[in-house]
Specification:
About 40% of the residues lie in helices and about 25% in strands. With about 160 residues, the protein is of the alpha+beta class.
């Protein structure tokens, strides 16, 4: 999840802020396998500007929001082979319909982080691009006449907050 570092920094600075309240103050001890990770270092130094600069640089470079748009396609159904097959066919159709109009990328298909939920198998495809309309047009064009979704439900999430 591209927001994992932001959540880490947020939680650590929030805990540290609460530990410093009151007459006695407090001490925060962070136990980690990655003490050199920039969210840990920035939280330790309570350096919001440094964290923002590094996070913005990474997101710009990788075309993640707010410097790009995402569209998550979630395919789900009771037949595992059918869901996986539909995800593969749809991802291939999306790749075949990519145009040279700006940055567009198809990631996946891959099993969703919660690959089975409430008796349904789940696969996802993540699209990255410059504009939400560009991503929606790509999906709309691919779904015209697409027959691979029989017995499979498809949901779209523009700029998902999380991809679980």
């Amino acid at each position: 999840d591209f927001r994992a570092e932001e959540r880490t920094f947020q939680l650590l600075t929030q805990v540290a802020g609460r530990a410093g309240r009151g007459e006695l103050g407090g001490e925060v001890v962070i136990q980690t396998y990655s003490p050199e990770a920039y969210p840990i270092q920035c939280a330790r130094e309570y350096d919001f500007s440094k964290f923002f600069e590094e996070e913005a640089r990474k997101r710009r470079e990788l075309h993640y929001p707010p410097f790009g748009r995402l569209l998550n396609l979630l395919l789900r159904g009771r037949d595992q082979a059918r869901v996986e097959g539909a995800a593969g066919e749809l991802a291939q159709a999306l790749r075949e319909n990519l145009t040279g109009d700006g940055f567009l990328q198809v990631l996946g298909p891959a099993p969703a982080p919660l690959s089975r939920l409430k008796g349904e198998y789940r696969w996802q495809i993540l699209l990255k691009g410059e504009k939400a309309g560009q991503l929606q047009d790509l999906v709309r064009n691919c779904l015209k006449g697409f027959k691979g979704l029989k017995g499979v439900k498809l949901s779209l999430d523009v700029d998902p907050v999380e991809v679980l």
